[in-house]
Amino acid sequence: MSAAEGPLVVGVDSSTQSTKALVVDASTGQVVASGQAPHTVSTGAGRESDPRQWWDALCEALRQCGDAAHEAAAVSIGGQQHGLVTLDAHGEPVRPALLWNDVRSAPQARRLVEELGGPKAWAERTGSVPAASFTATKWAWLAEHEPDAVRATAAVRLPHDYLTERLTGQGTTDRGDASGTGWWASGSEAYDEEVLAHIGLDPALLPRVVRPGEVAGTVHARGELPFSRGTLVAAGTGDNAAAALGLGLRPGTPVVSLGTSGTVYAVSTHRPADPTGTVAGFADAHGGWLPLACTLNCTLAVDRFAALLGLDREAVEAGSSVTFLPYLDGERTPNLPHASGLLHGLRHDTTGGQLLQAAYDGAVHSLLGALDLVLDADADRSAPLLLIGGGARGKAWQQTVRRLSGRPVQVPEARELVALGAAAQAAGLLTGEDPASVARRWGTARGPVLDAVERDEETLARITGVLSDAAPLFEREPNRN
């Protein structure tokens, strides 16, 4: 292990498809050890995972970190948002977790919005208009389709809550992840009793919301983990809030995250409440707000299209008027949960590389369309976009974002920003610092800036037109018989 200047901390990113663990020097931000292990996600109508896989993957990732993990003084978990984890009286999963990209609860989402005052009332109450990704809609779906599972449930958790509870033995969450449930009121920063009563969820089943900077507990698990007994455990948070910590974001700095899902967000001092539902009014992990727009189809959808074409993901070609809307898993932004992929404008001379570029264009169009709504009115619209996530280092992604945004793009050199943000949160427990200040001290946002190019208004307008014309097709519910 490399010599460390200060205490060691562990940051974890439990994402949709894998769990990554970093052991970080709290003084310098140097990553001294790392590990990673995969999970599986179901295919078909739903998207589900067994939470016990996340725990097994965490144990394996920490095992790969070796002795460094044993020396860590604090740990924090960043995890995929929105997932519904139902536990029985023994703490075992009642059923696989319903993940953020499971859109089966779209009818329940529509019904909840209508029954509790409409979009504006929801935005004012919770900061967001719930879509199929939100946990409240998933609980409503479960109550309707699997009432026996609901009756067997003794605790309801989010993915990061589940792992934190396995570490500490205590049911806790944080304001950032709680704000994506639909049952946490952003105005009062407390669980919303009316929403919970409406969906039939006993608040006693929910975890305690830990305040920013508060210790969630200490490690109590024996045998499976390398931590010393008594290692401090931070509150943890959702993946986007953790990445915001990992970048040390200041208000107004725009972020475009390219992962399985795509997101655009910025830290704000103002509580968001967008009645259109495009922007989710999330809380961040250290007392402010994180207005965010999310798409369901990003790198995974583009990679799938590249595989169908038999092309490398970088094998794009310009010069076509073909349009592809890559809504392979339905879509959240725009809110079209029943949509599928749509290809328009195909000609005899259209090449495979042009089709692939159209997939990139369609994915980025959805993200940039929400960017102005995410940013506060006084934000600098010419500032570089921070480009992060698994796709951020791909040349095709970089060039597509530059061309369709017309803005400079900065690609931070630091990798695994969700895990780094969790590590900064853990370090804050030891130093008393704001975790974002810790990340700024570590210099995590440093990286090359790609100059702005002229914005491709023609492509943006073409995609917008195709999307508008196709809306009636996208809004039809599929026949699953």
UniProtKB/TrEMBL annotation:
PROSITE patterns on file: FGGY_KINASES_1, FGGY_KINASES_2
GO biological process, one term: xylulose catabolic process
Highest taxon, organism lineage: Bacteria
Catalytic activity: D-xylulose + ATP = D-xylulose 5-phosphate + ADP + H(+)
Classification via Pfam families: FGGY_C (PF02782), FGGY_N (PF00370)
Residues the entry annotates as binding substrate: 81-82
Keyword ATP-binding: yes
A Gene Ontology molecular function term of the record: D-xylulokinase activity
Site feature location: Important for activity: 13
Enzyme Commission number(s) of this protein: 2.7.1.17
Family: Belongs to the FGGY kinase family.
Function: Catalyzes the phosphorylation of D-xylulose to D-xylulose 5-phosphate.
Matches recorded under NCBIfam families: XylB (TIGR01312)
Protein name as catalogued: Xylulose kinase
Organism, scientific name: Streptomyces triticiradicis
